[in-house]
Structures are given as structure tokens and as C-alpha cells.
Amino acid sequence: MYHLITGGSSGLGYEIAKHLILMDEHVIILGRNVDKLENATNKLKEISRKADVLSYSLDISIEEDIDAFIDTLETSGKPIKQLYNVAGTTFYGKISDIHKEDIDKVLKSNMIGLMLFTSKMVGFMLNEPYEDKRIISVLSTAALKGKKFETIYNAAKWGARGYLESLRDELTETKIEVINVFPGGMKTDFWKDSASGYDVDHFMDPADVARNIVKVAMDTKVYVTDITIGRPK
Description:
Elements: E1 2-6, H1 11-22, E2 26-31, H2 34-45, E3 53-57, H3 63-76, E4 80-85, H4 100-126, E5 133-138, H5 151-170, E6 176-183, H6 206-217, E7 226-229
Parallel strand pairs: 1-2, 1-4, 2-3, 4-5, 5-6, 6-7
């Protein structure tokens, strides 16, 4: 059984993969940058000799690529135990600075890609005979409260949240559980090019956030539907 992680080559996605591998769990990481994927895969393979680490270069907003990836899973006999939706991008700026390409980029990564990829994977996971499967999606606290200069990002996360809550209701009678995670800011490259001016040194360590996500996701004795993770006050 494998754990599938979008955006697994860096940041929080990589840390989630790392924590799973420390538990000798098999992982498949996805990303668009081939070099980053290869580097991440090599580092992850050094952590455990028992865990299988696979990687695929994939754009989760392209339907043909997703179909080809699922065909690969079916052909190679790689059952998915958990899907972690972590991939995403952001935009920080005034309303007057927003252009169509900014909207397309943020919605494509955070909402459209998540909805398309998850929908396809649900079909695959429902056809597998195994039980106790989970979809864990990292949405950010931006899906809970609007914030100035993050309008597109907020909109994308709110849309993704609506999709996932509806998906949870649709999957109620199945063996797939849907968990949504709302973390605050983390010290990753996510905000590096956003011109936000945030002091990321005071943000959370992604390794700490990943550890808490994996702890809940792997505990099959409980089912937590929503998790908010923030810095201690």
C-alpha cells in the first residue's frame, strides 16, 4: 500500500513523505519539476531501506496526464492507501494589480488541479478492494478567513474546501474518509516570490506541521474531519 503525495518534492509535501518513510511506509511523490523530484527521491531513499519511494512528474491540472498516471498505477499494481493533496501556489498583491494570468495560475494549482486529480483518484481508490483509505488535503487557514492582498488565493482555497466537504458527504457510505487540514504560515519557499513582506522566520517549521498531520492521518482508531494547525501563542 502506498501514500500518494502531490507537491511532494519540496516544502510540506516533502516533510510528509519523510515522516511516512520514517515509519517504513511506501510513498509516491508527485511534482512538475523533474530535477527537484529526482533530488527529493534520492534523499528520501536514504531514510529507510524498507520503504519504497517512487516519483512521477505530473501536472495535476492536465486530465490526459492524470489518466496516464492512473493507468501506470493499475498496470504496476500500486494500491493507494492515502492521498495527500499538498501541491499549490499563491499570489500576493492588491486587487488593482491582478491580471487574468494570475487568477488562472492560482486557481489551476490550488482548486482546479486538486478537484480534477482528486476526482480521478477517487474512482481509482473506490475500485480497489482495500479498506480504510483516506484523502488528506492541505488547504491553509486561508480557507477559513479572508485576508487582504490574498484574494485569489483565498478564493481558490474556499472553492477547494467546498468541493472537499461535498466530496466527504458523497463518500459517507464508502471506505474513503476525507480529512481537511488548515495550517497557518510555514517557513518554506511558498512565500519567497510572493512580495508579501512576511517575516517567515516566525512561521511554523514544516517538519512540525507534517508530523502532526501524519500522526492524525495514520491513526485509524479515530476520524478527525478537520484540523487547524497554528503557532502557539
